[in-house]
Amino acid sequence: MPAEWEPHAATWLSWPWNRTTWPGRLLGRVESIYLQMILALLPGESVNLLVSGADVRRFILKKLHCGERLLGNLVFHEVKTVDAWIRDYGPIFVKKRSKVEGRRSKGGSVGFTKWVFNAWGGKYGDLARDNGVVDRIKALKRYERFDTGVVLEGGSIDVNGRGACLTTEQCLLNGNRNSKLPKAKIRKYLEKYLGVRKVIWLKKGIEGDDTDGHVDDIARFAGPRTVLAAVEEDKRDPNYGALKENLEILKSETDEAGSPLKVVALPMPGRVSVRKGERLPASYANFYVGNKVVLVPVYGHKNDPLALKVIRRVFPGRAVVGIECTALVHGLGSIHCVTQQEPG
């Protein structure tokens, strides 16, 4: 599995429509967030967008204010979904490596892995139907497909494209995913289907995360040996202890070749809530790296500028775009959760 910052052929998105996930006026705000993401991505790559029908397609084209050249990069796929979390139920793309050099060749063919999606441990029976979305995307038929038979969501892993993978024990070792698979077996599946040679096991995710600790809210590779790690400075915050423990693990870890990791602290946006007393899983670590841009969720918090500064420093060749995502995270996920990269 290539790293997210490696060249893309496209970004995959699924248009939001579920009013249970985003009730009332929230859905319109989330649609606006999607339009911002699409407009930021189109100059650098194709965007494959799942929509329910022609009426949604017309609505989007009416709302997008860009030239025909950019619109040529937007590809619609009429595929009905229950919700928008394509990172977790969509294809996870892989690329063949040269058997001689052990590296991916520039002309290497692209395929995808299909993992079982059980709606984050069976929490949402209706959303589990999105396990079949991949089967209905006709454009994927041209790729070699690898069915794993194992439960895994794309947001639960993050790779450096060289063989190292970040994940959490809270998620991948959870009995509601693969109850009979011990840590060593899970590592074997990651090795077989994603080319992983080193798994870095963090402990827990953040408060309010219904995914049981997806790693894309707490730590992300920003280079072969560079990791951005979410850090909470407020000792009274429930996230303080868990994030500190994860930070210490990363500082003591190495990449797949045994070299120490360079760990860069990324602040947290504090408590974000639009529900009565309920904390939402807001994190700057849920960014998405496109060919030319890095899309970063921001939340109207004093740490927004600092987070953008940190991310600009580790991705100097890309424009870093902050997008206000309080409405999006109401659905318990943010930018990375609703995107999926296809390598070029």
Distance N terminus to C terminus?
12 Å
Instruction: Tell me the quaternary state.
Output: single chain
Query: What's the helix-strand series?
Result: EHEHHEHEEHEEEHHEEEHEEEHEHE
> Can you give the mean pLDDT?
95
> Which class of secondary structure composition applies to the elements?
alpha/beta
Anisotropy-based shape: globular
Largest sheet, if any? Answer: 4 strands, mixed
What is the number of helices? 10
Please report the first level of CATH classification, the CATH class: Alpha Beta
- As a whole number of angstroms, the C-alpha radius of gyration is 19 Å
Task: From the 3D structure, determine the CATH topology.
Answer: L-arginine/glycine Amidinotransferase, Chain A
Unreliable runs, pLDDT <50, ≥5 residues? none
Return the domain count. 1
The CATH architecture comes to 5-stranded Propeller
Strand line-up in the sheet with most strands:
3-2-1-16
CATH superfamily name?
A: L-arginine/glycine Amidinotransferase, Chain A
Q: Tally of extended strands?
A: 16
**Beta-strand residue percentage:** 15-25%
Helix content: 10-25%
Overview of the structural elements:
With 344 residues, this protein is of the alpha/beta class. The chain has a single domain (8-343), classed as 5-stranded Propeller (L-arginine/glycine Amidinotransferase, Chain A). 24% of the residues lie in helices and 24% in strands. It is built from ten helices and 16 strands. A four-stranded mixed beta sheet has the order 3-2-1-16. The protein has a three-stranded mixed beta sheet with strand order 4-5-6, covered by helices on one side. A hairpin with a 3-residue loop joins strand 13 and strand 14.
